[in-house]
Amino acid sequence: MNVRLGVHRARKACTRCRSQKRRCDRATPECGLCRRLRQACHYEERVVPSPSPTPSSSLDAELSLETLSPGHIKDAIVKKLGSAPSDIYSTYTQSIHPWFPILSQTLQDEPLPSWNEAPLDYTLLALCISLLCTSPSSSPEDGMPSKFQAAYLNTKGWIAVIEGLGITSLKIVQARTLVTLFEIAHGFYPAAYISIGTTVRAADALKIHSRLCLPSSPSTADEAEENAVELIRSAIRVLDRYITVQAGPHPSLTRSLTQDVHVPNKTFCATGLEKDRTNPLWRLSRVFEASTLLDSIHNVLQNPTSEQAFNAEEIRLFVETSNSLRTLLVEEIEDADEIYSGGLGLCNTGLLLAYENGTKVQITDGQTLTCNLHATSSLHSILTTITDTVYPFVSGTQAVDFDRLPPFITFLVYKAAGLVTERLWMEVDSSEALRKLRILRGFLKVVSARWLCCQHYLDLLNEDTTPRILISVEGR
User: Which positions fall inside the Zn(2)-C6 fungal-type domain (predicted)?
Assistant: First the structure.
């Protein structure tokens, strides 16, 4: 480090250096040359502070209060968007709402303001919608598309600045939720794991500070706002549970919150929705139900009690309920649409985890033997079902509609591929197991064009696959 970095400097060279035409560093109270020669040093003019930037002045220059005002932040975000509000929210309706409708219908139906009239939280939400609806580039640099990553980091930066200014609202919580979903969908870990924590707390703080609850005689506006709150709370809990299953043995964050904070009230699944099963809000309610069962199964498997019989009975009940929900979901959707059902994907994930655990139960008596045999048979069946579901999209029979495809299906396919790989040596017909593995891995490769988490999963599979099996899978 230069120890003279912070010294004051004169406007002109000292009189001795000027008279002898020597190079002067203009340091005060004496220049470097005069100091080394031990000669008197004089300046004609008064000294001024050094223009060399210090850490504090540099920070002030980059983050001035003027540029960090809400108005300036909004203007900067609008410049990044480059599209009209109607175009961005139309993109949300087409590409997010079909499988994860976290914005109330009221917001979509109301007249959209121009960017000049829009508040800061509205523009931030639009930025996050635009980010999630952006597909990664087909030509990445150093493993990460540069423009894609820049857009993500830009959005995260604005969220951090707005948080630091103490600005919060329902739309900002919605924006945070979309960014967390983006991180999940593209395999940005541990960012997604960290973001879900801040999103949960942001929603909780909003509830405490704004006291969002229906009055005794709610107006239409009150009901619309409460409905929007319940939608976003449900969405946050779904994401939290999904992340937790991949994160390890710890319970989900929202499991520790009071029951009334994050549970949809009766307005969420209104009677009208029950008659319209194609309604996106109906599908979100099914995703919420499936995530509840997935969270329960994960919690029992990772945090069992000391009573083995009690644990086994709990798992049996959750599996039974999951199978019932799975049957309902299959009846409600068309065969070709199973891949687009987030609820069915989460439901199958819970069953897959339960059956996998059952195959590893130590056989000590007739009851554990029965459990092991049933789990092994059920695991084989569900692996076949998952493979058959994704096969048309790998074979080219059908094209994936990425506007309808939730990223939640990707972990299910990855987990299935991992189990097929793990059990490959146990299969009587290894050629059939290899066929399944090629299909499952092929699906991840196809979907990686939209959701980068698939490439992350493929990398994990490659790490856990022996070179011999990998050669067989790739047909080399």
Answer: 13-43
